[in-house]
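[Meeting: bench + compute handoff]

Bench side (C.D.) handed over the final construct sequence. Compute side (W.E.) agreed to return the predicted structure before the next meeting so the bench team could plan truncations. Sequence as handed over:
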Amino acid sequence: MTYAAFRALAERLWEEIPEEFKRGLQGLHVLEEAKAEPGLVGVFRLGEYLDPGPPSLFGWEGLGRHIVLYYGSFLAVADEGFDWEEEVWQTLLHELRHHLESLAGRDDLIREDLERLRAFREAEG
C-alpha cells in the first residue's frame, strides 16, 4: 500500500467516527515515517495519542490533542495477509480510547500499554 492510499484510508475511516467521540481533538495526522518503540527491536508504534496536558497558567494549550498514525510502522509490520483497513481501524479506536480516557481523567489503557511493553521487554531479555 502506498503512503497516499494509506492516508486516504485513514482519513476515510476517521470520517466514520462520530464527532462526539472526537470532541476536544485537534485532528488526525498521518505521517510517512515509522516510529520504533525505544529499546525494543522490531517493535513499532502504529499510532499515538498526543495530549499536551492541562493548560498553562496563561491558558495556552500548545498544539492541542492529536492522534498520529505512522505509515512506515504499518509498512514495517505488514505481511502477506495484512488487513490494512482492519489494522488502521483498530489503531484509530485504540488512540481514540486514549483520548476519551484522558477527558475522563482515567489512565486504564496507558497502564495496559505499559504492561504490554513490560511483557515484550521481558520476552526479549
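W.E. noted at the follow-up: The chain has a mean pLDDT of 90. C.D. will use this when planning the next construct.
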